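Newbie here. two chains, one complex. Structure please?
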Amino acid sequence: MDPYKLKKDFPVLSDETLIYLDTAASSLKPNQVIKKLDEYYEKYSVNVHRGVYNLSYVATEMYEESRRKVSEFINADFNEIIFTRGASSALNLVASSYGLNNLSSTDEIIVSELEHHSQVLPWQNVSNITKAKLIYVPLNKEGRITIENFKKVLNKNTKVVALNYVSNVMGYIAPIKEIIKLSHEVGAIVSVDAAQAAPHKKIDVKDLDCDFLSFSGHKMLGPTGIGVLFGKRELLDNMPPIEFGGDMNDNVNLYEASWKEVPYKFETGTPGIAGAIGLGAAIDYLDNVGLDEIAKHEYKLKEYTVNKLREIDDIIIYNESAETGIISFNIDGVHPHDAVTFFDGDNICMRAGHHCAQLIIKWLKVPATLRISYYLYNTIEDCDKFIESVKNARDFFKSVGF
Amino acid sequence: MNNLEILYRQVIMDHYKNPRNKGLLNDNGYKTIHIKNPTCGDDITVQSLIEDGIVKDVRYDGTGCSICCSSASVMSETLIGKKKEDAKKIAETYINMLTNKEYDETVDLEEAVVYQGVQKFPARIKCASIAWKAFEGTLESE
């Protein structure tokens, strides 16, 4: 893949001074996706599943075509793909529907301190309501989830395992396939947060054998406001809807009603039609480039950057061994919010703060971290400009007395 | 000097490194307000002691970036000894100045005036205003 050529597809990057290093928060969007959104709004911007006129048929076809693309993208069956607002609502759906209806006080839920709030907080809520115990996998000294430590907390009471595939702060890839295998041996189901995995690595839900898997469109070149929940058909069939209203119902009577089949019983209201269609275009784009190529490229940039950062005094890197394109670091003695204003001055977009993952920030025993994350449109020149800016930032803050 | 340098060179580093009036008191006479910005982690508690219409003391504690912490220190020095009404006016003027609203330029903000530079860094306005907002809160809870 050629990042210099790909860059040209991203209108935000037409500002050549801009260095975008915050893909882990949200990716930029290519023209191909933007055009697809325009196409919906300009040519068939009507509702789906309702109209019996031709235009509504076209919109419905396009919307469902995206569902098919998503299902192929992760090797799921068509009916196992539920469109949601994003990974957060997908993860919440699992907890609110499966969790609240299947757990009780003798059960255990395994999570970790490496989770994004959208994975841990829904289960904290389930635990508070059902009195099921919330159990944390002890992280190893690098901050990773390991099989050895996972086995320490897994037992016959474990009913749910809710873990990330790739950490949004540390960029570590969890040994999720083996975790799923072990969890199934004790009869637990596994809900995988794949928000940081789906944009960067090939996922095969049948091979993983995961029960649920969630991700967002906007982190993988797609629009905001659209996400995906994959669930195994037999589980979804037995789960109640958590939102009720139009389009999810079958027969409606005064005091009871019945629901459509999955996935529609979980998709009430007018869905994010444009978003879903745009996500389809994003998947086409990623397929054309090739996820394996993207992952290799990001890792190369990350390794290059880490090696250079190591040579700069006062730079603390928290995840040197990450297998992906994420680097979490700080300038010694400088609050990340002070630092990020310096980088902003160099037109470098990056993240400073808790990254919606306070538990791992507390585990690291720091007030917050700086984070950069690479994607297919980043180049070695971006790395160099960033490294130069790090040196200048360090010099500046030291010179004013930090 | 660039904007960032001007901002940091002035009062900010002095107060960040040598904070004044830091540390809370366990005294019922003080009104206490805690404000947190969960997205960045700035976390400040401000106390004020008002007696006979005068701001007798301002204390604070917390964690955050240099702009957040130094602005709390500068605020305490600016407001101690002022009449309550004047302190209120200064706080209001300061926050209007930061947020680019119209403000009364005749009000003397003393050292706090250097935070005018924060206007150039819109993402940091919250950092510079959180302690002052907490102070305003202590007056309201009077």
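Moderator note: Residues 125-140 of chain B form the longest helix (16 residues). The beta strands of chain B are 31-37, 42-51, 54-63. Thread marked as resolved.
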